[in-house]
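for the record, two folds in this file. i put them one after another cuz i was lazy. first one right below, seq on top, structure tokens after. the second one comes after a little note so u can tell where it starts
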Amino acid sequence: MKEENFLNIISKVMNNTSLLGDDCAYLSEYKIYVTCDNLIENVHFNLKTTDAFSLGYKSVAVNLSDLASNLSTPKYILVGLSLPNYIDEVFFKDLYCGINEICNKYNIKLAGGDITSSKHICISVCALGEKNKITARRKSNISLGDFVCVTGEFGSSALGFNILNNFNIKKYFQEENISYFIQKHIKPEPRIYEMFEILNNINSKNISMMDTSDGLGDALYKLSTINNVNLEIEFDKIPHHPDLKKISNYKDYIFWGGEDYELLFIINKDDYQKLDKNLFHKIGVVTENINTIPPVLIHYQNNTYDIINKEIYNKKVFNHFKGK
């Protein structure tokens, strides 16, 4: 089964699914956002390639990224741990030191959790954030000519993952860049600072946004189909480390590598002009209705292009349950 099959079953079994559909749920009666993510040993991380401190930091960061994509200020986390009996006090302390560092950085309080035994490490973090005067959702009132924008760079985390798991790739890169790519993977930074820059500089309520945890291609396709518009993207405007081009399939790293935890959003051009161009990069525009041409067109300088449609999306996107 695929993840979408499980989600379809949930939608049929549950009487009320009005809060489902986004990575964050907005609880309007309490004016808070809530999100939850799991990190599973040998699925999302391996103790041979990451340390406990970075693992603790990342387990919170991935949740804060979801809050940032809704322009929600993070306030509280709850941590659920399932641990095998070989985990010692040093690992456990280092894990919580990583959690503590990111909580201190963004003024977040630990509000509780649970600890159980397990054959493998499972870290489940629930994060809660408050609603701000401006919010963002995947589906919004966007218009033709609006700008498609991103933060950060793409493909570096996926390259870091492959460097950790394939020593043959290391020969293409200098030592300082190897360390850089690995850190991008094992200790990502949620775009909380960039979120506040948006909140402090624009007033529009028509923002379509999500993070790129499952890849830029995944996010582009989803924003396109959810909002029923076509997106035309200029590849050369997508931020990425120049060393990526040392890998023959570097485009796959950029679009489908995942775990970048950057923000992809659509806003009107007047609002874009109010943002810091060192932090926010315009990579494309909203064009036609989705029914006229493929959802996402990627243009290159040599007048060629790629498309991201349903067939390409299903082929390229990461599937947790592939082969099951």
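(here's the note) second protein begins now
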Amino acid sequence: MRIGILGRLYPASAAATINGILGRMAAAGAVPVVERSLAQRMAAAGLPLAEGTELMDSPANKGLDLLVSMGGDGSFLDSVDFLGSHPVPLLGINLGRLGFLSSTRLEDVGATIQALVERRFGIEERAVLSLDGCTGCGTHNIALNEVSLHKRDGAAMISIHAHLDGRFLNTYWADGLIIATPTGSTAYSLSCGGPLLAPDCDAMVITPIAPHNLNVRPFVVRGGSTLTLQVDSRGEKYLVNLDSRSQVLHHFPTLTVRQADHKVKLVQLEGQDFLDTLRSKLSWGLDVRSSLP
């Protein structure tokens, strides 16, 4: 089995942890294929890759069976961008804190590697969004969690004119606007009052960020919708975000958000379930009244 490896190497102590995981993969009979910049950062930390480990600049023509993201959810989202439309299954090993997407714990790494090598896992497909009209937003222009528009620094709120499938929806006077996938409904959208969606829902959530009109609420639309956005701003700049990647725009193009033609394939290990993740990561079912502040 050929396993691609990608990570941010943060904190610096993660280099030793990743090096140990690579060794366990090789011992289990897998071939680790490490993204080149990660290998360079590990070498700078005094941990050059072991002999037999391969390098890659992209997933193309590497024959990967799957890609493992080392780090937190930010690293996981980087991995989605790295893969683009390549149909390589993705698994996250959590070296950070919450780890909603990177849900495999360090203490479970040994069992996880064995399950991967023995191919004891399923595949779950997740919808991703594509963004058109944003020059400079990267090569893939895709997002697993959300596409969002946001005012820049301390500027006044922005006005976002939104059309849904060619029909005028609303003008949002707000700090910004989030268009989230079901996967992203547990992320930025949730913190702004958006609803939780099951991962297999064919839907998108439109969630305003600090709207001036308090009667404007999050809105769930079908997954096949096309959302067209035009920004007005007193300032000269605003932000366009695709997951953890941001681009400052100095002009006001028409932006189009829709589901991408491909889906991201997530590795589903035995015993993993979205409802279990909700309970463990969001503390559902816990009586917070009896816990210490």
